[in-house]
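Our collaborator T.R. sent over the components below with a one-line note: 'Predict the complex.' Nothing else. No constraints on interfaces, no templates requested, no preferences about which chain binds where. So this is a plain run: every listed entity goes in together, and whatever single assembly comes back becomes the starting point for the next discussion.
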Amino acid sequence: MIAGISIYEILTVTSIIFFIGVYGFITRKNLISILISTELILNASVVNFVVINKYLYPTLLEGVFFSIFIIAVAAAETALAVAIIINLYRQISSVEVKETEIMKY
Amino acid sequence: MEKIIFYILAFIIVAFAIASVSSRKMLRSVIYLLFVLVGIAGIYFLIDYNFLAAIQLTVYAGGIIVLIIFSVLLVHHIEMELEIAKPIKQIVTALLCLIGLGVFLYTIYNHPFQPVENYTTTTVNEIGKGLLSYEKGGFVLPFEVISVLLLAAMVGAIVIAKGTKLFDKK
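Returned assembly:
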């Protein structure tokens, strides 16, 4: 744990990151920007897992394992999302949300 | 000392996260996200999870950011400015997010956490043994499932990014 820093302060920072991510997710109009906001949200949750593990149950390692799994899933998700965005750009020459109207081509 | 470093890191993370969701240039927004991720890796270093910080730096800063930058360069003109939402929608969303943040913080500060004083360092040895043990509390099954998931995602990404040509041949 960090000397002089309580768990509340770190959880405050992660909550702020989470809601910045939610804000970006709702207000941005571009698929790649939405992907970036999703990364922010995922990162906030990963830090929460790690911090709660370190401060409350330092002898166990479950939080570390879960965060490793979350990072792996986030990597897979990003790769798929980028593939979908590039394919979509080939079909309709745009990555704006309002122009993606049909799910199947 | 650690206190000051943590506050600097927290400031960097929050400032660049806000910049990342409000910048109108696509590429800059990705680079701000990179700074946020590096700051989070710094927090992992501060709480002595060195392996996790290394994962964060390699997978996020090394892999995901490069992937997003590539996709930005493939689909965008760099000079193009992003369209932003209407001001009224921005204000309403910001208010809703602030209310949600208030609820979160109220709940967090009212919960009596009982932290255990400790300054132990977790070694990679322990993490590896925990991940691959098949005894009680071991994580070998999720580990294998994640590896299959990564393989499936890789194949799926290749098939999707290859486009329609794959199906036109028959």
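Summary for T.R.: The mean pLDDT of chain A is 87.
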